[in-house]
Amino acid sequence: MPQGQSSAPRYSVGQEVIFQAALTRFYRHGYDGTSVRDIAKASGTTPAAMYHYYASKQELLMDIIGRFMEQSIEVTRAAIEAAGDDPAAQLFAAARSHVLWNASDVMSSFLVNSEIRSLEPDNRRLNIAQRDKLQRMFDSVVVQGVAAGAFLTPWPREASRAVVTMCTAVATWYKSAGELSPEEIADRYGFLALSLVGGQADSVSS
Question: What is the distance between the alpha carbons of residues 173 and 175, in angstroms, rounded to a whole number?
Fold first, then answer.
């Protein structure tokens, strides 16, 4: 199972502590319900320490969202490339990896999908560009699959969007103590993705 950004430090220890404190506070209390002082207290530092790494609370939110989306794109790209040339295998792998990725870091996934409203215009445009980039990878697989006769949907782009929305939404209800493992959920969603596009599961294996 891919590990989410909450367990993949890439900053100095001090910055990572602030990053994680903000991630948790934003998830529990919302962006508007969290102050710089709250983040400093949760990280065991001071507001001045946060400002050493981030110019504002907005920049910190954008770092959390942008980092998760950047990694989402890379995880999806790697899954598609590893699946070979078969469109059904590619879509199954992309859907499966997207479920696993979002389930691996439900806090970041939730913020990406709930706090776009809190992004300032320039940051919102950057976030939308990342979302579009991720969506286009799924679109490309589905459109090519339809052209090759592997998928029967008459609405490839709408079906592709439904696949991404469905897989992303797993983070809104997934619990590690649930009945199914992340891998089992991901397998089921991979097959559901194929059903959405009118594809066959003969060439894929869970």
Answer: 6
